[in-house]
Design goal:
43% of the residues lie in helices and 9% in strands. The chain has nine helices and eight strands. Helix 4 packs parallel to helix 5, helix 6 packs parallel to helix 7 and helix 7 packs parallel to helix 8.
Length: 255
């Protein structure tokens, strides 16, 4: 990687997964994932790059320790605006390191943490960082272990920040009624969010009226996913109709 960064000074986009192809029955665990030495080398490269804006490291078995090493390079980096750490093994300590990065970052706009091991312990650090961060516009915590308490805190902290978040993906977690109440309060006061995905969670039909009321009061939301909760088909259709009206209105099209 040091050679690549040295001889590609204008590199702007990088997607990298450590592994081996076509191993078949010869599979060996050490063939896959980022190692400690890889992370240290990569962190050093991140300190020196001048053009890299998009970095994706999916499926590298990055755990809390490796996330901590990478964070040291990210803290020095002044160019990355989009960061993808999806499909890894980041848990509470790793999320805390990422939150520390968010606290000081003024240019990161996209953060993808899909399919990790982040639960309430890790999400509370990220939520607290989002109370301060003013640059992040798109965040995905899909396929983690966020429970009702974690989702509620995230929405409460975003509400306090009056954040500039434009898209929020919390699909496939363990979010339920307490989260929905906090989300509804957040949607009532936030003017930046446009896309929201809370599909595949545990939100009950009893919260449908609260959610619909908050969506009615927020004309900026033009895309929403609520499938695979505990809503009736009629409720899903009503929610989709509200957002469709917003979308058409933003396009100056009569509904």
């Amino acid at each position: 990687m040091q050679i690549a960064f040295k001889y590609l000074p204008n590199l702007t986009n990088l997607t990298l997964t450590f592994g081996a192809k076509h191993v078949g029955m010869q599979y060996e665990r050490p063939l896959f994932g980022m190692k400690m030495s890889d992370a240290k080398t990569f962190a050093q490269c991140l300190r020196n790059t001048h053009q890299l804006t998009y970095l994706a490291l999916p499926g590298n078995l990055i755990d809390d320790d490796l996330a901590g090493i990478l964070q040291k390079g990210l803290m020095i980096n002044k160019t990355i605006t989009q960061l993808d750490l999806s499909h890894n093994k980041i848990g509470e300590r790793g999320a805390r390191k990422i939150a520390k990065f968010l606290l000081q970052s003024q240019i990161l706009t996209h953060l993808n943490l899909e399919d990790n091991l982040i639960d309430y312990g890790g999400s509370r650090f990220i939520a607290s960082a989002l109370k301060v961060n003013k640059s992040l516009k798109h965040i995905s915590l899909k396929l983690n272990r966020l429970d009702d308490k974690a989702g509620s805190k995230l929405c409460n902290d975003l509400e306090q920040n009056k954040s500039v978040i434009e898209s929020l993906n919390l699909s496939s977690n363990l979010l339920a009624n307490m989260f929905c109440e906090s989300l509804s309060m957040y949607l009532k006061v936030n003017e930046s969010i446009k896309k929201l995905d809370v599909s595949c969670n545990e939100i009950e039909e009893s919260n449908a009226a609260t959610l619909k009321d908050s969506l009615d009061g927020n004309p900026n939301i033009v895309e929403i996913q609520v499938r695979n909760n505990h809503f009736t088909e009629d409720t899903q259709n009503e929610i989709n109709e509200i957002v469709t009206k917003n979308y058409l209105k933003n396009k100056n099209i009569t509904y």
